[in-house]
Amino acid sequence: MDAVVPAHVTDSVRARPAAAAAIAVAALGAATIAGAWFFQYVVGLQPCPLCLEQRTPYYVAIPLAVIVALAALRRAPRAVLAGGLVVIALAMLGGAGLGVYHAGVEWHWWPGPQDCSGPVASFGSARDLLKQIQSTSVVRCDEAAWRFLGLSLAGYNVLIALAMAALASWGAAATLRGGKWRQHAS
User: Domain residues of the chain, as ranges?
Assistant: First the structure.
């Protein structure tokens, strides 16, 4: 059976697994953040405090992945490339853990943080306080605003973060092995 991916692409991935993994992580992370912003700014689903915290690993992983990809293309030392990919994997594992926590809060398996009542600015005068109370929309961490196939956005974050951690881990391992990995016998 002919390969779906052209030979020059697979050869390039084999030659520079750190670059391939970093580019994949950056692209997947950027698509995920773009999706989060789409749900927030276009669909109008306001994020809760836990939703916002779950974005932090992406804000770390995406620029670091771009740096690792550029460094790999400039033939930086393998240990440096692998180290950057390990940091990305750890950040995304932390993000997956936060996503599991948030999903558990949504399913009421455990209590969520107390600050899931929305932001509170300065109270100002009594009249301003009344206006603020009337116009504030409380976004709760324990209520999933959207689900698809039974998973909330927090659940999808777990899957995506684990995939990104796996990609980064694969890239680190393949880089340390010198870009070689087992090939299936034809």
Answer: 7-111+140-176
CA torsion angle for 153, 157, 158, 162 (degrees, to 10)?
A: 160
Q: Which helix (H) or strand (E) holds 148?
A: strand 147-148
Angle at 102 between CA 107 and CA 41, to 5 degrees: 110
- The yes-or-no verdict on residue 114 having pLDDT over 80 is no
CATH number attached to the domain at 7-111+140-176:
1.20.1550
- Average per-residue pLDDT for the chain: 81
Report the SS3 class of residue 133.
Answer: helix
Q: Are 63 and 80 in contact (CB under 8 A)?
A: no
Give the burial class of 30: count Cβ atoms within 10 A of its Cβ; 0-12 exposed, 13-18 middle, 19 or more buried: middle
Q: What is the pLDDT of residue 4?
A: 64
The residues near 64 (Cβ < 8 Å, ≥ 6 apart) are 84, 87, 88, 91
Predicted TM-score (pTM) of this structure: 0.76
Do the beta carbons of residue 33 and residue 77 sit within 8 Å? no
* Structural contact between residues 181 and 174, judged by C-beta atoms closer than 8 angstroms: yes
Tell me how far apart the alpha carbons of residues 13 and 18 are, in angstroms, rounded to a whole number: 8
pLDDT tens digits for range 147-184: 678 778 788 899 999 999 999 999 999 999 875 544 44
